[in-house]
Specification:
- This protein has 260 residues and is mainly alpha-helical.
- Helices cover 70% and strands 0% of the residues.
- It has one domain.
- The longest helix is centred in the middle third of the chain and has 29 residues.
Length: 260
């Protein structure tokens, strides 16, 4: 098991957004293209998008982490996450598991409503629906609204808990379970900063939506990049010195190399 330490109370939410905006602004065309392709892959490909979420977000994180270190970056790095496809796919499936469950429940509710409407119409040819059916439809609609609001809250919390799992697997030789547990521990130790970051990210998304299509094309990579910046604040890069000055020969208890 790899021993990875993390900083506590390390997330500077406004700094994350500011740094993300700096990165995106510096390479605006590339980030817009990467963000658009990533969004299309994880949102607009039926069924396959469930398995692509983790690897695609891993590739985006790889690109941002390199950019943070001022290393060369290019569009093709979006696909670097596919080099660790299986563990990242599993993490992605776990992250979007509530969405999958909610969609199944939503389909069940929709089919039930259609069945009730059809039954009501067949029962009374002169009314759109029978009196017995109306309360059931109203109850289903109300229940769906409550379920939807609850799902939104739960999904936000669920995603936040595992927000660091993808870059952890990407950067380190650790398993899926360890990455999920480590992400959870790091999130609970930085919960205040993460909440502020999520609120600021929501504000950026709203501003992007107000600015219509182009605004969202910029807002999406800014929000995603800000999450990666937060990861780097919590899990900083350890600078390893590989070339250091060797100790003097006397430190080895020998006179070799001291001359005659």
């Amino acid at each position: 098991m790899t021993n990875l330490n993390f900083n506590r109370g390390a997330i500077d939410a406004s700094g994350c957004i500011g740094k993300a905006w700096e990165l995106v602004q510096r390479r605006l065309g590339m980030y817009i293209g990467v963000g658009l392709v990533a969004w299309l892959m994880i949102s607009c490909i039926p069924c396959a998008n469930l398995f692509l979420f983790g690897p695609v977000m891993g590739g985006f994180a790889f690109l941002v982490l390199r950019d943070l270190q001022n290393e060369p970056v290019e569009f093709g790095m979006l696909f670097k996450g596919f080099e660790k496809f299986m563990p990242l796919m599993v993490i992605g499936l776990i992250q979007i598991a509530p969405t999958i469950v909610f969609q199944i429940i939503q389909y069940a509710i929709d089919f039930t409503r259609l069945g009730l409407i059809s039954t009501g119409r067949n029962t009374d040819l002169y009314q759109s629906q029978s009196p017995e059916i109306s309360p059931l439809l109203a109850g289903l609609t109300f229940g769906y609204i409550i379920l939807f609001l609850g799902f939104i809250v739960f999904q936000v919390i669920w995603n936040a808990v595992f927000i660091f799992a993808v870059p952890l697997v990407l950067e380190n030789d650790i398993g899926t379970g360890e990455a999920l547990k480590l992400s959870m521990s790091a999130v609970f130790s930085n919960v205040g900063g993460l909440i502020v970051l999520m609120l600021l990210g929501a504000l950026v998304a709203i501003l992007g939506f107000i600015a219509f299509c182009f605004g969202l094309l910029v807002a999406i990579p800014v929000v995603w990049a800000a999450n990666v910046v937060a990861y780097r604040q919590v899990f900083p890069t350890l600078d390893k010195v590989f070339h250091s000055t060797p100790p003097p020969p006397t430190s080895y208890g020998s006179s070799f190399g001291q001359g005659l």
